[in-house]
Amino acid sequence: MAQLFTKDTQAIFWNNNASAIQRMLDYDYTIKRKTPSVAGIVAPTSSNKFEKFFWGPDEVMVPLYKNTAEAKAHQPQADVLLNFASLRTAYDVTMEALEIGGFKSIMITAEGIPERLARRMNQAARDKNVIVIGPATVGGIVPGAFKIANVGGTIENIVNSKLHRAGSCGLVTRSGGLFNELSNIIAINADGIAEGVAIGGDRFVGSVFIDNLLRMQDNPEVKYMILLGEVGGTEEYKVIDAVKSGRITKPIIAWCIGTIAKYYDSGVQFGHAGASANAASETAEAKNKAMADAGIYVPATFNDLPTKIAEVYGKLKADGVIKNIPEPDMNIVPKVRRKKEFICTISDDRGDEATYAGFPISSVALPSTGKGIGDVISLLWFKKQYPKWATDFIETVIKTVADHGPAVSGAHNAKVTARAGKSVVESLVTGLLTIGPRFGGAIDGAAEHFKYADDNKLSPAEFLNHMKKLGIPIPGIGHRIKSLKNPDLRVKGLMDYAKECFPATPLLDYARTVEALTTSKKENLILNVDGTIGILMVDMWRALGYSEQEINEFIASGTLNAFFIAGRTIGFIGHVLDEKRLDMPMYRHPMDDILYDVQMADEI
Amino acid sequence: MAQKAIREFDAKSILAKHWDKYFPNFTYAYETVMVKNGPGLREAAIDHAWLNDKKLVAKPDMLFGKRGKNGLVLFKDQKPGDVTLVKAADWIDSKVKEKQEVYFSFDGETPSGNPSVDYLTHFIVEPFTPHEQAEEYYISATVVGDDDVLYMSAEGGMEVEEGWEEKVTEVSFKITESEDEIAAKIKANIPADVADKDKAAFAEFAIGFFKAYRELNFAYLEINPFVMQGKKIELLDMVAKLDDTAGFLMANAWGDVEYPTSFGMEEKSPEVLAIEDADSKTGASLKLTLLKPDARIWTMVAGGGASVVYADTIADLAGIEDLANYGEYSGGPTTGETKFYAETLLDLMTRKKDAEGREKILIIGGAIANFTDVAKTFTGIIQAFEEYQDKMKEIGMKIYVRRGGPNYEKGLKDIKEAADRMGLWIDVYGPETHVTDIVRMAVEA
């Protein structure tokens, strides 16, 4: 991999560090990336499903996940993990990600991970060919493509430091603060950087100077490299060896900070944890001299570094190695932005024609399209185009539940209200308000409990026992008059349709075994219409490829009842219009139908 | 700093606490006490009867080695092994009275370089263990590059450094090697000089030692020498460093362990301790080391890397004698934390006028911040100016500021206006000026 990141690179961000993520998205917008560089966020303690971020003047939603595995499963294309976990958990997060696989690079920000754990983690990554940036780092950047978290600071500074588009320098530092500073120096004295990494300040970091410089040597965008080292360690000598052996041929400008350390014994810790010379060869002086001897460009002091950069850059420019870089168009991130109060993800009325989940209304509404109400429901409720067998099933359900006569409580309410002279909508809602756990709720309940039993591999007898312990009758089982001998033809129709058209009906098959047991006890304990609908909906979603968790969420959010509400609305309106037509008077319940049992209230 | 030296007494205590886990087939009496003076030793004898019963060895326990060559190991009165409690207590008293000279390096028996001079404050006292030279061994472990390295020798005692190449067997281990691989490798590399009859026991001890070193998160662990008499082990001298970043995992395993300052180094001042305390309570980083408190140039620099280049540049351009302190604040400290840090510095800086009557120089430096809000931190510095403005004017001070990053324009404007209003001399620069160029300006002015 010659280039660390591309303009398509996406990351999973571990920890909902909103300001750092916003900076990444501001960068993305500025450089006109098509997709946000953060594909998902792992937020173990959040109960939200997404977090909103600004995308230029607009907002986008970035999904939140409970753990890395879930995030990676939903965002398999995201091959960078930005591990912003604390020093106590950063090791576990990295090891888990290596186990899950599919990450090309992992950046770790925590400072002070126990050394033995850091070594184990870095080695595990090396063994799997995963690039680790850090620990104890601000990260890295490939200008014009992908920026890690806070690197480069504010968007103004990023543009001032020419970090919005690729230059010709490959930059490697230990320090994160000086990384930013050097980007600025390079922008002033040369044409910016092509790729840069701050490797991190802890004693044991994953990728070291040489790893990054070798990649830059092989990256044609990089024309020369700048290395900012520190007192302590011997990593700079590996670079010297690569230069001497001819493995690195591009010019390198280098400086090791910490020349002051020679004046003090090891009792004074200058800078990072990694910065402590254990031998004469590890002092900044010795390393600066050795690098200069190897033909690396080394300034006289840090203060002279800008001049040295201008000199090397000028020479490469004069030699034609470096060409002029055209300045690309940029988006400007607005200074003042307002968070949006509402989000809509199903329909849009801003264009020429309003759309349902991206489809112009006419493209699903007109008879010539061949689309029905099942298609409209699949678009507006589920944001998906369901296949015909599923939309037909949905329509069958809607039609089946449309009405069940005037005596049920919802219809009765609607009729009483209509007779009180109220409007269609008022009458309708009084009917709808009865829908719930007792009226129509068996659809939800059947789906929930049968699915639970099936998921947990309960035998029919165990399931009955389980429901007995819960103290509730099995939802979806039982009919007032119908039995196996006198079957409910609506149920039969639905089951026959599913058997013929569904790819598979595992939950229905299970429910039939339960029904066989219940009807052996009492013959009217059949699978009723509510139960059949709820169970077949689960089978439909399973066949459509939804995960068990997504189906559980459908059940929990009341989606199944929604089919009943949609269908029965047709019937209620029928009853209300019926009352209007008949113009029946105000209803009063006969007193002889009420048991009066009123006692004198006690004084307390 | 992740690797911190601990006292010999603490190192022995940690090993003793876990002895049965790592050395189940060996015994260690753990007869050792740490005292600060003679009376302390006499008091210790109440709880530790062996101090009265046995002949003793006493030596300072203050991180430095070569105690024998410095004449600081008491093991004989008239002849080796005759030191009583009374004698040891008297000897310790005689050593704590005045500052002692300690040489850290020797050329043969002759000290080389300059001695460090300081009071001796901690002593370790143990029983004198009569043994044969042949029963002494050397063992140590540390990290070299990416690997753990185990050093073993059949010859213990301080002579080991004088024949390192010939006498010491080095075995290195990848971090990924399993317990079995490690054990096999140690067994295969027992120094040839270890007597054949002792090889198995030596290997067993070395395997336990190396496991303790790894699992207890030692960064360095040395026993030189240990005495092995059958299954009985004596730890005659130990040196250890802990990886203190593992502290949160090891709180129980290590117990109450102290990280002393090296001998001859100034004790940490209350101000430095206060900054360390503040540092331990924030996610940001606050660091302060006093180098020469009477010197002229003080730094208040943001960022671990930037603080080093400022120190480098001051040493290069002004000279090391002019640099009063080293330190840094970073990681987005709050206004309050920055105020406290600035006040601590200003308090130290305004205690004495410059000996040559020059103005003092305060370098408020920093690179271009990634995420620290510059205006917010500068608000803390301005608040500290408010408190110390009179003292600052009295002592005579020039302030040079250079900083970039989020909100830096406002930060620079605020601090300039505040200093002007208070009548303090100030110059401010942003990212257009090279990060350390204010040092040149200050020195040339």
The number of helical segments of chain A is: 22
Strand content of chain B: 15-25%
Largest sheet of chain A: 7 strands, mixed
The count of helical stretches of chain B stands at: 15
CATH topology of the largest domain in chain A: Rossmann fold
Number of domains of chain A: 4
Please give the CATH architecture of the domain at 270-444 in chain B: 3-Layer(aba) Sandwich
Spatially, the strands of the biggest sheet of chain A line up as: 3-4-2-1-5-6-7
**How many DSSP E strands of chain B?**
20
Low-confidence stretches of chain B: none
Question: Approximately how much beta-strand content do the residues of chain A carry?
Answer: 5-15%
Low-pLDDT runs of chain A: none
Oligomer: heterodimer
* CATH-level-4 superfamily name of the domain at 270-444 in chain B: Succinyl-CoA synthetase domains
SS class of chain A: alpha/beta
Compute the gyration radius of chain B: what is it? 27 Å
Biggest beta sheet summary of chain B: 7 strands, antiparallel
Mean pLDDT of chain B: 93
CATH fold title of the domain at 270-444 in chain B: Rossmann fold
Strand count of chain A? 16
CATH homologous superfamily placement of the largest domain in chain A: Succinyl-CoA synthetase domains
Summarize the structure.
The complex is a heterodimer of chains A (604) and B (445). Chain A is of the alpha/beta class.
What labels describe this entry?
heterodimer; A: 604 residues; alpha/beta; Rossmann fold; seven-stranded mixed β-sheet; six-stranded mixed β-sheet; 22 helices; 43% helix; B: 445 residues; alpha+beta; seven-stranded antiparallel β-sheet; four-stranded parallel β-sheet; 15 helices; 20 strands; 24% strand
